[in-house]
Amino acid sequence: MAGARRHGSVPGEIYSVPTSYPFRDGLSGEEAAEHTIDYITTHIGATEIAAFFVEPIQGDGGIVIPAPGYFARIAEFCAENGIVFVADEIQAGIGRTGTWYSIEHHGVVPDLVTSAKGIAGGFPLAAVTGRAEIMDAVQPGGIGGTFGGNPVSTAAALATLEAIESEGLLVEAQRVERALTARIGDWAERFDLVGEVRGKGAMFGVELVLPGTRTPNPEALTSVIRYAAERGVLVLDAGSWDSVLRFLPSVVISEALIDDAASVIEEAFAAL
Ligand SMILES: *Cc1c(COP(=O)(O)O)cnc(C)c1O
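Output (structure tokens, whole complex):
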């Protein structure tokens, strides 16, 4: 997902700030949070900010899991400065990481949460959930859209949420995490071009590097994805440098299928 291409500029007064990327910045959560806060105070000004949006586990950004303590400090900074803390859970939420929302891994309660993708089993639906004082600040119907609350999609969402509960799918996602960790968790030790394997639940990333360095290796990723696709294993790329192999399997994938997929990718590494 290397930088947006030909998308034009974003509207003014939206800023991107550095976050926590343990593999690349080597900082503790507290240090990375101070870095973010310093950037905000020196480049923008804490009082100028309405809301801080963040993916608690970045999806397209490369399955980046901020260091422990990062979000606790950021949430505290937001509270001190009247900034609404928004967790974008569109990719990592709704059970994918073994908890309902991925921010739960960080022990922080956000002011607002965005959901979509998994929320209605593929039917188009998105949701914003939050503290009543924020949600009720506009009059009923004050925020709407053509397709908001589509009856079929909302029925699908209710069925999806019910299935996650009744079929124990959070526990299934935790099982996938254990299975993936057992099967591919040692790839960084076994393969020179693997910099790091990281993930939660059924959301894993394998960061490819030039052997012996931390330099991103997008060429290797392209080859691996092509090799795997030719053998029936579909993986996605991710990361700011297009160098992270992204695993987003079904939370009910079997250990046997994980093993199959991992074997094909190991062959792809060997073929490089
Ligand atoms: C897909 C995605 C979006 C976009 O969601 P829409 O509902 O299509 O606007 C936003 N954030 C994350 C993390 C996503 O993965």
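Residues 4-166 form a domain with the Aspartate Aminotransferase; domain 2 fold (CATH 3.40.640.10).
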